[in-house]
Amino acid sequence: GEGSWALGGDMEGGSDAAAERAVDAATLALSRYEFFRVHEEPLGERPTFGSGPPAAAARLHESDRPKVLVCRSTKAYRRLALCVPRPGERTVDIGSAYGDATALMAEAAGKDAVLGIDVSKHFVNQSSAARPGLRFERLDALEDPALLAREIEGSVNVFVDIGGVCAAEALVRLLPAVAKSASPSFIVVKCEALHDAMADAEVPFEGLRGATTITRFTVPECERSSANTNEVEDCDTDGSGGSRWRDAVVVTASSASPVFWRITCEREVGNVRARSAFKRAHVARSARPASDLFARYPLKYPPRFVRGDVEICRFHNYSADGCIRREKFGICIFDHEHCHWCGEHGHRAWECEHAVTAHQSAVVDDGLAPAAAPVRDPNDGTANGVANGTASGGVDGLANGIDDGLANVSLAQPEDVYVYVAGGRNRGQTVGITERYSLRRKRWERGPHIGEPRGSHGLAAANGVVYAVAGGGIKSNLATAEALHVVADHASTAWVPAGAVVEARHALSACNTGDWGVCAIGGWADGNSCTGAVDFLDLRTDPTSTTWRSLAPLNTPRKLHGAAGLPDGRLFVFGGRIGDDARVGPIAGAEAYDPASNKWRDVAPLPFGACACACHDGSDTRSHRVYVATWGADNPEGNASTKRGGKDPRVGEAGALWRYDPDANTYERFCRLPLPEWYGFAMCAHDGWVYLIGGSTAGRWTGAAFRKRVDEGGESEWEQLPPMKMTRRRTAAAVARAGLMRV
User: Fold this and answer.
1) Distance of CA 478 to the CA centre of its chain
2) What are the DSSP calls for 57-112, one per residue?
3) Cys staple from 727: which of 200, 372, 391, 446, with CB 3.0 to 4.6 Å?
4) Phi, psi of 236 (to 5 degrees)
5) Can you give the pTM of this predicted structure?
6) Cα 701 to the chain's mean position, in Å?
7) pLDDT (tens digit, 9 = 90+) per residue, 61-84?
């Protein structure tokens, strides 16, 4: 049955003794644990305790062996957050985000017993403010194993949600460290890749004889008074009249084969070791670490204080060069007398014996240990190791220096026009990085970080403001919008809230109608269907408005489509997908919106079914032509290649650039796209040029950027621009000018 697994490629360097040792160590660390795949919905009827406990139900905590419970969805993860912890049990939530699941754990275990951990400063600040009774710490669980060991020591339950769709590779590093340093009774993991691999592997395993082993875990969920929501009373479960139990929280799970975890490790350790090798080759050139024990940039370690409010200097504790401020200027407002790690007087963190002990307790094998980790968090970095704009491996295409290679934004000039790219997806991570390409200086510059990282979202610009709309967030679909005022120097600016659309969704398209409106169109709404929703932000009477209103919905709900707006209020939508069935290719249908009647009508379809991007060149006042880039096309030009992942063989991958004339209702083909099998890129246009940026090509994430002359009499070949500093796909782009908007 092993040949049917699809978690990843074969272990790189299978004959490598170091790789074998890493596999052995990762397997041994979890050898005591039973693995269970949690079903999305409980099987059978939901039992109640009003008439006595069901005889067929097995209590979750009865077995003496510790367990790893793997779920696929947020719903299942939160159900486990309620039923796994018991009163007083120390529980840690790794990847706590906004703290929703952490709060449920606190209901079950009590506030003082629960800790939320997240790598994002934004999430830690937001969750701490929203839930003042709970404790949240900023920590990178993958890159700071020693700090993680200190925080989870003595934990009975450890929950892990580091992105949900995150590759199993990260779990091969993290779970053994959790098991070794804390030995919890329960490790609860939310990971789509691991969950799906477990489902695929259940039947073929020898000994199961064509059936899975089903275990029903039933744990009563106690009623709590509104005045005492964080304490759990002992309740009667014998069916007597005094029972205070509500319907039980039921978890149905399939037990995995004992060899499941080893096979997972064999498939992923090669990726882990390749990633570590990349990190060692791209050590940050600033703030050199004082020891391999603490290889991260000093400010990535959480702030700590002595004497109440005096912060301990992290550069003094972790940098080989010490505190440059103190060395250069003779003064530093932070404490230099105490260890940042243990708080004791007289030594630095990299010399701390307690830190060494914690590191030894957390690192399972050198082959699984972090090495020269990036100085910024996974959602905030730049791209070393990028050849011709395409990531060649390593840490998701991210670099390690502070703004390394990023130009400082200079004072505005008369023609400071920018191509903005914000958010996106980077190898399983949703990112919030904003970059902009200066058309005058011909270079990429860093912009402010989006407040809520998002991918597969919409981006549009109007009246000197860039709007990011909806999209897939770190935990779920977003309905929120954010706005960024376009200025020459973003040092003092930030993305600010800009209202919310009616329906949270991703895989939508956004466009502007000149300088007076922004639209968000279509998308994938609830995880199993497309939406035809159209939201409009009217800026005519109030350029600062954040109130979105609904327009007439699309005739054909769709996702991964292209959308463009004209200054007269007309909207156009091209292609896309109407569902998630891999056997059904994208559609060719196109629609146009009439603002006078508030109705959509069908217009000439694309020459073939395709996913698409679209845009209008707002600087072209002579015509209303719309540009469409098709990808994932339905066998254009007889191309027989197929999309990776075993899609319908009728689906080819030759992309093309088209010009659509709304008045004539016709398409004109320009050329093929400049990269092979190019998906998930962003598109915009300005001054007779069409820009294509980011995406993935031939299965590799890219930061590539191209432009092509498309105005009359000026057609040309694709021109390659400098690549973005961050590789990403499912991003979005818009053109804006400081002080006066053009798209």
Assistant:
1) 12
2) -B-TT-SSS-EEEEE-SHHHHHHHHHHS--TT--EEEET-TTSHHHHHHHHHH-GG
3) 391
4) -75, 130
5) 0.49
6) 14
7) 566 789 999 888 888 888 889 888
